[in-house]
Amino acid sequence: MRFTKVQGLGNDFVLVNGFEQELDLDRFPELAVKICDRHFGVGADGLVPLLPSRTADVNMRIYNSDGSEAEMCGNVIRCAAKYLFEHDLVKKKKIRVETLAGIRIPELIIENGQVTLVRVDMGEPRLERADIPMLGAPGRVVDEELEIDGTAYRITAVSMGNPHCIIFVPDVEAVSPSRLGPRFETHPAFPRKTNVEFVQVLNRSEVNMKVWERGAGITMACGTGACATGVASALNGYTGRLVTVHLSTGALLIEWAGDNHVYMTGPAEEVFSGVYPF
Ligand SMILES: N[C@@H](CCC[C@H](N)C(=O)O)C(=O)O
């Protein structure tokens, strides 16, 4: 199977071109675990087949490194758009991508003939508890108490097609996502589990973020997580609706615009291509 390794702010993926080779998706959960292994495989946070679509330019599926399937991924959609354009598979600056979360639209920013950044229309955030999904009474989950191991945390929950639980902290460097992350991810309040973002507000337009991802654990960045963080920061009144989300590997610009869509701008890089014996 031919593949291309890509990364967005160090959140890395094995992309598989399903336009030019036949793929058996039934085997992808098992393949994701093997190929994402950093010692025995290619090494990645996820496996992402790109397939022909009846309703869009491409159908993108996302398998986490534990084999579970996610509805959406912000970092890989930027990488996929750049890959499709540069490999002449979709020669458009605005590409319609079908995902399990719906159609998302990345737009390539090209300077001097090079794709420098990708800006993605990530659609509308979903804020109703049942849409996260989260158990409990109807309404939004904003600055709500959630107890873990006897400690009460204040959480805000946002779905960007996939679930996110945001916890604002005074100092993100003092947080250990590997200790707390799994406790939030598998909390019974989240029936489909959740991604977890720890966020420190720096000022009205900047935050620092660390992430624990559902199905992948600690990753260097999370695009949908940055979008959910931008929305949560505005909902809590900590920032305006244009927020730079800093990660240890760089930053994503998040705008929750007047049309209620969230726009994410950030980099995308191809790393190498290869053949996996599958
Ligand atoms: N890293 C991604 C999100 C990947 C999916 C996530 N782990 C989930 O299960 O929802 C991003 O950049 O958004």
UniProtKB/TrEMBL annotation:
Alphabetical GO biological process terms: lysine biosynthetic process via diaminopimelate
Entry-linked Pfam families: DAP_epimerase (PF01678)
Record: residues binding substrate: 11, 64, 74-75, 162, 195, 213-214, 223-224
PANTHER family, A to Z: DIAMINOPIMELATE EPIMERASE, DIAMINOPIMELATE EPIMERASE, CHLOROPLASTIC
Keyword field contains Amino-acid biosynthesis: yes
Assigned EC number: 5.1.1.7
Catalytic activity: (2S,6S)-2,6-diaminopimelate = meso-2,6-diaminopimelate
Catalytic residues, chain numbering: 73, 222
Database matches in NCBIfam families: DapF (TIGR00652)
GO molecular function: diaminopimelate epimerase activity
Domain of life: Bacteria
Residues marked Could be important to modulate the pK values of the two catalytic cysteine residues (site): 164, 213
Gene3D superfamilies: Diaminopimelate Epimerase, Chain A, domain 1 (3.10.310.10)
EC top class, as a word: isomerase
Pathway this chain belongs to: Amino-acid biosynthesis; L-lysine biosynthesis via DAP pathway; DL-2,6-diaminopimelate from LL-2,6-diaminopimelate: step 1/1
Assembly mode: Homodimer.
Protein family: Belongs to the diaminopimelate epimerase family.
Cell location: Cytoplasm
Chief localization: cytoplasm
Main function: Catalyzes the stereoinversion of LL-2,6-diaminopimelate (L,L-DAP) to meso-diaminopimelate (meso-DAP), a precursor of L-lysine and an essential component of the bacterial peptidoglycan.
InterPro entries, per the entry: DAP_epimerase_DapF
The protein's name: Diaminopimelate epimerase
GO cellular component, one term: cytosol
Keywords: Amino-acid biosynthesis, Cytoplasm, Isomerase, Lysine biosynthesis
